[in-house]
Amino acid sequence: SVKLDQIISLSSRQLTLSLSNLKVKIIHANAFQDLNDVLGYLNLNQNNLESLNYSVFDKLTNLIELVLNKNNLKELSYQSFRNLFKLKLLDLNSNEIIFLEDDCFN
């Protein structure tokens, strides 16, 4: 079983949320809506994500690190990472990305 303190930690007003290796296939658009102001680090590695809803990370304006490695992502929309102005690290290693829309990382 997974203990809550293994997936969530809070330090210096920055929430860390680790949802790795849970076989997640879909993340709904409003999945993180209650964490908009505090989520700083989000780990979604080793899941089964094939695509990202264009607005799933849209309001996570304080996100500093987003880890999406070891998923099955195939394409990324130009809207996938919009509004992530504080993002310092984006890990997309070990995916199956075959298409990136123009301006995907602007």
Account of the 3D structure:
Strands 1-2-3-4-6 form a 5-stranded mixed beta sheet. A two-stranded parallel sheet has the order 5-7. The model has no long low-confidence stretch (mean pLDDT 86). It has 1 helix and 7 strands; from the N terminus they run αβββββββ. With 106 residues, it is mainly beta.
Features:
106 residues, mainly beta, five-stranded mixed beta sheet, two-stranded parallel sheet, 1 helix, 4% helix, 23% strand
Order of strands, widest sheet: 1-2-3-4-6
By DSSP, the count of extended strands is 7
**Count of helical stretches:** 1
Percent of residues in helices: under 10%
Q: Mind telling me the C-alpha Rg?
A: 13 Å
Order of helices and strands: HEEEEEEE
Assign an overall shape: globular
Calculate the terminal CA-CA distance, rounded to whole Å: 39 Å
Mean pLDDT: 86
* Class inferred from helices and paired strands: mainly beta
Main beta-sheet annotation: 5 strands, mixed
List low-pLDDT spans: none
The amount of beta strand, in percent, is: 15-25%
In short, what is this structure?
By secondary structure, this protein is mainly beta. It has 1 helix and 7 strands. β1 and β2 form a beta hairpin.
Topology:
Layout: H1 4-7, E1 8-11, E2 14-18, E3 39-43, E4 65-67, E5 75-76, E6 89-91, E7 99-100
Parallel strand pairs: 2-3, 3-4, 4-6, 5-7
Antiparallel strand pairs: 1-2
